[in-house]
Amino acid sequence: MPIEEEYFRQLSEYKFAVDLQSKIVDARRAGVLDGVRLVAKKMLKRNKPIDEIIKDTGLTREEIEGLNIEIEVTPSGSAARGMR
Q1: What gap in Å lies between CA 82 and CA 45, rounded to an integer?
Q2: Is the pTM of this model over 0.85?
């Protein structure tokens, strides 16, 4: 195999590996964030103060308020808070 072909083959393999590693890191971050959001939802359901949830999870007030909206309204439109 000519040197140029080998170079481009190895470069292609390297780029593939870097891209794959980046996707793995992104997926791990997303999984961690999903876990943090789940904890925040549980804290909201137990009526913990938003300031406490911010401190414990690192989420912003806006993110927590968005979760609060998800908890309060189910797809059928009925209130879900306190029912679980």
Answers
A1: 7
A2: no
Number of H helices, E strands in the chain: 3, 0
Distance (Å, whole) CA 51 – CA 10: 51
Handedness of CA 50, 53, 55, 60 (dihedral sign): negative
Compute CA distances 30 → 23, 24, 37, 64, 81, whole Å.
Answer: 10, 10, 10, 16, 26
Looking at the DSSP bridge assignments, the partners of residue 73 are 79
Within 10 angstroms of residue 47's Cβ, the number of other Cβ atoms is: 8
Give the rounded distance of the alpha carbon of 9 from its chain centre. 35
Greater model confidence, 69 or 30: 30
